[in-house]
Every structure is written in C-alpha cells, then in structure tokens.
Write a structure and sequence with these properties.
heterodimer, A: 301 residues, mainly alpha, two-stranded antiparallel ribbon, B: 224 residues, alpha/beta, Rossmann fold, 6-stranded mixed sheet, 10 strands
Chain lengths: 301, 224
C-alpha cells in the first residue's frame, strides 16, 4: 500500500465516520435518556436524505442559489426530527416505556417498517442524486490525492461541532442540565419540578434530528436509495454497542475506528469491507461486554 | 392547608394506604411516626404524585391530586426522599439551585433563596463546589434538605432525615430544622421517623401510621 492509497483510505474513513457518528450519537443519546433502543432511528437518516435531495433538486432547478444547499440540510434535519420524530415519541414511545425491552424493540421495528414503506410511497424506488453541496465546495489536494473539500473538511468539521455542541449543551444550558438530571434519576427529577415527559420529547427530537442531519449531509455524496436507512441503523448499532450505550465521546471514537477499519478493508481486503465493523464490535464485546467506554456506574450521558 | 380525603394506595395488589383522612394546618410541624413498611414513605410519595392513588388531596386551596407531579414542587412543596437522590454529575450548589432554576426564579430571587439555605445550613457553603457524587451519605442528606428548602416555601416534607446519620451530623441536622422553624413561621413541616422519641420535643403534632392507617398519637399534646 503506497502513501497515496494510505491517505485515501484515511480520508475515506474519516469522512464516512463523520456521517456514522451523527447517526450513532443520536441513537446513543436517545438510549441514554429514554432507555429505548430505537430501531426506527435509521429511518430518520433516510428521510433526512430524501427530503434534502428532493427539495434541493426542486429549488436548484428553479434557479435558487446553490449555497442554499447548506441551510436546507439543517432545516430538513430539524423538520424531520420534529415533525416525524416528535409525534412518534409523544404518541407511541411514551406509552411503552414501562414495557419490557424486547417489546419496545418490536414496536420501534414496526415503526421502522412503516417508515420504509412511507419512503417508497413518497419518493418511489428510483435513486435520487443531488450533489450541489459537494460540488459547491470544490476539491483540495493533499499527499498527492485530490479529494472533495466537502468530504475531507466539511463533514469532519460538522461532526466535531456536533460533538462539542452536545457536550457543552448538556453541561451548560438549563435544558441540557435537565436532560442530565432526568437521565440519572427520573423520579428525583420530577420531585424537583422537572417535566420528565417534555425532557424525553426534546431528547428524542434532538436525537432524531441528528440522524436526519447525517442523512442530509450524506445525500450530497451518494445516491439516495431505498434501504439506506436499514444499512445505517445496523452500522450505528455496531458503533453504539462497541462504544458502550449512552457514551457520546465514545461513539465518536468508535465511529472513527469503524470508519477507518471499513475504508482500509476496501483497499486491502475488499471482500471483508462489510464484515469489518462487526468484527471490531465482536472483538471488543468479547473482552468488554459493557463496551469500550461503558462502565457499571450511575446512569449518565 | 393540606388535606387527604379517603386516600388509598395499592402497590402490586397490596393496600399500602387505607382510606386515609388527614388534615394538616398551615405552619404546623408534624411528625409522622411508624415502623418500616407502615406506609410513611408512601404517604409522602403520594403527596408528591409518585404513586397511583384513589381519593383526593387538597393543598393551599387547589386539588393537588389533579396537578401533574412535576408541577407540584412549583406550588411551594420541597421534598427530600429517604435516600438522598442527588444528581451526582453536578456540584452540591448546582443540585440545591436546580429546583429554583426549573421553577424559573429570577437571579435575585434565587440568590435570596440560596442565602436562606446557607443561613440555615452553613456547612453546605464549605462543600458548595464539590461534586454531589463525592459527599458522604450524611452530608448528602444535608444537601437534600437544602434542595427542599429552595423550593419549599409552603410545605417541606422530609422522609426519615435522621436515618443513618452519625450523631454529630444528626445534631447539626436538628439544629438546622430548629433554625428553619424559628426563621420561617409560615412553612409547614412534615417529618417521618421510625423512632417515636426523636421528634417528640420538636414536633407540635405527632401522627402514627400503622398498616396504612394514620391516627393521632395518644400520649401527646396537640397544639398544631
């Protein structure tokens, strides 16, 4: 493997890890606070991608500025998280928190199946491709390889901003503190006046919006196709399980590990590409069943 | 001021509280005495809205049992659970302030409340910046009392505050309660305890809870 291939593998891995991280951190946030493993989480990723690609295609065809691609992603992510994620938590998940884990997973799996068909109903099965945002940022050359600035710089920067923003938001804003308090002890939080139901709803919307943002960002780099949500949820489960459920920084490091592992496999041993994330997960969980960063301690995020 | 009317609580098919009728006057100091499992904790938890109950609870002119549990502290009710239940990721001071922040107190208002807390519990000032997860069990009870003081302008309920306190700390805790009583004549205090002697001098009224039924203590002069 020469230097260029090595650099290419690293860049591929990092930009892919950035997308995986956004989805996985939303999943781990929701699990950390609500204690529900949301199988439908990947659907927010797919719907975020579909919304961005279809709306983007329409507004650019109508002659609007291509720079609108970036605010569009944020708007699409927040709308998907709020308008689809919000009602799912409020009218469905809020009724099943007292049920067994396996029943909760079945319910969210059913939501996933419904949302998959919903996507086919709205956007059909033809792939969508809308790369305006990618083209808009041009390319850069490092170590003799030319790569899109969007994937090399923009995606990792967004991922780091989300990581730092989440940590600061949880620590320094009142809403973040309330989320932290409800996570540790829901009942004690209620006895000091915290509306735990509202905290759950806000957390779910934030987590769903992060997945949708991952999809919105991904839509510029790849074709938006049916089934992309399923691929992503499986991969982000692997990341979250490897990191330890509820671990935000852990999800970032693990996403990077799995992203790099996957991209090196592409160049070194392509047949293993799909398997590598699960091999990493398998190896880690064999040694540390609670995940790399998970501990047996008070619940926290 | 606080009235329980025919309150019954079942947990897993067992009646923990049986048709409790109870009236507690404003600014009184009430001891609720009973053995383990008699229903002391359930009584306080029911007032906080943490159990499924039948019957009705009224507080300060409102039907409390119809108010969502998370809105009850905002009516001026401070509650310290038996196991201190602090938020370990925050400092002692952040823990104490939190109910006030949730209730939307202004900065000046919260500062005044904090001054009151530190006046009644001066030892909290020394540990204000320490993580709540790092204080001892007894100190944690002090912090939980401080947290109840911030929001509890009308009613403060303490569940077995002396349970597991070292004698020196128990002394300090009792001092704090006396200071609170002298400083603030308005507030109503309900304190549960399994040892009937501990609160005898302090409480104006002693209630005994036995197998989910509450009655006045016989050998006690009621002034409240």
């Amino acid at each position: 493997m020469n230097v260029q291939l090595f650099a290419l593998a690293i860049v591929d891995g990092v930009s892919y890890a950035a997308l995986v991280f956004l989805v996985a951190v939303g999943l781990t946030l929701i699990f950390g606070v609500l204690r529900v493993l949301n199988v439908a989480h990947g659907s927010f990723y797919a719907i975020g991608a579909y919304t961005t690609a279809s709306v983007g295609g329409a507004i650019f065809a109508a002659g609007f500025s291509p720079w609108l691609a970036f605010p569009l992603m944020i708007v699409a992510a927040v709308l998907v998280g709020t308008l689809i994620g919000g009602p799912i938590e409020k009218f469905l998940l809020s009724r099943i928190y007292h049920l067994e884990d396996v029943l909760q997973i079945l319910v969210t799996f059913a939501v996933f199946l419904i949302l998959e068909d919903f996507q086919r109903l709205v956007w059909g099965v033809q792939p969508l491709f809308e790369a305006t945002a990618l083209n808009q940022l041009g390319t850069v050359t490092v170590f003799g390889i030319t790569y899109t600035a969007y994937q090399l710089i923009f995606l990792p920067v967004v991922a780091v901003l989300v990581l730092v923003g989440l940590r600061l938001g949880l620590r320094r804003t009142l809403t973040g503190r309330l989320i932290t308090a409800v996570t540790e002890d829901r009942e004690a939080a209620i006895t000091i006046g915290i509306d735990a139901e509202k905290v759950y709803l806000i957390t779910f919307i934030v987590g769903a919006s992060l997945a949708a943002l991952g999809g919105a960002l991904a839509s510029a780099t790849t074709s938006v196709v049916p089934g992309m949500g399923a691929d992503m949820i499986v991969l982000s489960f692997a990341v979250v399980a490897t990191a330890g459920l509820g671990q935000i920084e852990g999800a970032a490091i693990t996403a990077l590990m799995i992203g790099l592992g996957r991209s090196f496999a592409v160049y070194v041993w392509p047949e293993m590409q799909v398997l590598v994330p699960y091999l990493i997960m398998f190896g880690v969980l064999l040694v540390r069943p609670q995940g790399l960063f998970g501990g047996i301690e008070a619940r926290k995020i | 001021m606080l009235t329980l009317k025919d309150v019954t609580v079942r947990l897993g098919g067992v009646r923990i509280l049986r048709n409790v009728d109870l009236k507690i006057e404003k600014s009184s100091t009430v001891a609720l005495i009973g053995a383990n499992g008699a229903g002391k904790t359930t009584t306080l938890r029911t007032i906080m809205g943490l159990t499924e109950m039948t019957g009705q609870i009224e507080f300060d002119g409102a039907v409390l049992s119809k108010v969502a549990p998370s809105r009850r502290p905002g009516l001026g009710i401070g509650y310290a659970a038996e196991d201190r239940r602090l938020f370990s990721g925050f400092t002692v001071e952040e823990n104490i302030k939190m109910p006030g922040q949730v209730a939307g107190y202004s900065d000046a208002d919260l500062a005044a409340k904090m001054e009151r807390v530190y006046e009644i519990l001066p030892e909290l000032k020394e540990m204000a910046k320490r993580p709540a997860g790092a204080v001892s069990g007894g100190q944690g009870k002090m912090v939980a009392l401080g947290r109840a003081l911030v929001i509890g302008s009308k009613l403060i309920m303490l569940d077995e505050p002396f349970q597991g306190l070292a004698p020196a700390l128990a002394h300090k805790y009792a001092d704090a309660l006396r200071k609170l009583r002298n400083r603030d004549r308005e507030v109503t205090l309900i304190i549960t305890e399994s040892n009937p002697d501990l609160l005898r001098k302090f409480a104006e009224r002693t209630l005994v809870i036995e197998r989910g039924e509450i009655r006045e203590a016989r050998s006690h002069i009621t002034t409240g």
